[in-house]
Structures are given as C-alpha cells and as structure tokens.
C-alpha cells in the first residue's frame, strides 16, 4: 500500500517576488528550511516568469528529500481562471494573459522529480482565509471570513474547510473589494491608500499607511483618527456579509494589519456577532491555505 503524502508544495505569487515552501500536512506547519523567496519582474517574458516560479518550487522541494508530495498549489491574484489555469491578468504579468499556465508549468514538471503531481491555482485572498481556518486563528470556527488589507481589499469566505465563492450567503466570487460602499466601492475606503487619504484630509500631508502607523504609535492624534476611520469603514462594509454568512470569526491580514492596535478595537466593537482577530500567520497563511486546498477525501475545495 502506498504511503500517504507527507507534504504539499505551495507558491505565493506577488508582483515583485514569489515565495515557495513545503507544508507539513500532518502538523499543518510550513517547513522553514524549505522556504524560497525569489525576485520576479512581472513585466518579463512569459518564459522567464514561469521559469522563476518553477525554479522556486523546485528549490523548495529539495528540503523534503525522500518525502512524498500530494499536490502543488499556486496562490495568484485575480483575475485568473483558476479552474483551467488561464491567466486573465492585465495589471501585472501581462505576458501571461490568455496563456495556459498549468500546461506550461507541466512542460517543465515532466522532467523533474515532481512529475505527475497535480497543479492547482487559487485566489490568494481565498487561500489566506483557508490557511487561517486550517492552521491559524480561524481553526475553532466553522464559518469565517478572511480579509486582507494592503494595496487593495482582499477577502475569502470559508465554511467547514471549504472556500465559498458563490451562493446567496456571499458576494459574487467571494469578493468584497467591488461591493458598494458610500459613494463608490468598498476598496476605496478599506486599504492602505484609504488610510493615507484620510490622514491627508486631516493634515494636508501625503504619507504611506506604514508611516501613519508609526506616527500613531508616537501619539499623533490625526494618525490615530485615520485608522479609527478605517475601522469604522470596515465595520460598515463587513456587517451585512458577516450576518448573511453567519460568520463566527473575521481574521484580518495584509500589511495594514500590522497597525491592528489602531483600528482593531473599532472593528471588534462594531462586529459584536463575530470574534475578530489579526492574522498571526501573515504571509504564510496563503501558503498554508494552498496545502489545505485538498480535503482529506482528495476533493478540491
């Protein structure tokens, strides 16, 4: 009888770098000696981009010599045809637009020790949420929402270990960024730039969310007010979806979540029906979510 797979191999794709790592399926942990971070230029030729991705995966797999892998997952931003492996991105990785990324990776895969492993693709925010549910703050809860705050607003809805992207309980594709809020879309009011805009209105200064967080740490009242405003907007954006999904928990990640103490209390107070937490897995959450993408029965979530 064949021994069950011990690890999954996952790649988180960003605009300037990729991170690959093996995930221990039994312990639900990332194997740090196998973590590979590689720079990538999203304007490069398709062949160069995919070679960088595959090289990172291959190098990460070397940390698990003589160990078996269950699957490979790539965490990618939208728009992307995750089921068929076709890129629809135009804002970055334009040279991949319309290409069958799975087939191109399989061309390299067939000559490697990873030959034959199934390759899956999933939305990076969905995998953040799934990773938090599988190995992070969301573990005790059947229903949770993951939110990422960075250059944009990402979201993922997880019910009993499955990513939910359709149905009356969730917004289309499980995405909050383009839901209506005030005079526009939710993302305009809930991301790093939103914090900068709020601070700019109060002070006339142009600062990054990171700088504003530092100023809030130092007692800058306008900086603290900008983050308070972020928390209030998040409450308004999330409330109808927490109620519709009957979410028991909300876990917030992304770079802006590092300023949790400045907006987290407003979010916790405004969502009394759910437990609210900052991510502790941070950038590892999507990688762990990639490992969790297969249920114990081997069915894609």
Automatic annotation (TrEMBL):
Matching InterPro entries: ATPase_NBD, ROK
Any Pfam family: ROK
Organism per entry: Deinococcus roseus
Protein name per Swiss-Prot or TrEMBL: Glucokinase
Domain of life the protein comes from: Bacteria
PANTHER family xrefs: N-ACETYLMANNOSAMINE KINASE, ROK (REPRESSOR, ORF, KINASE) FAMILY
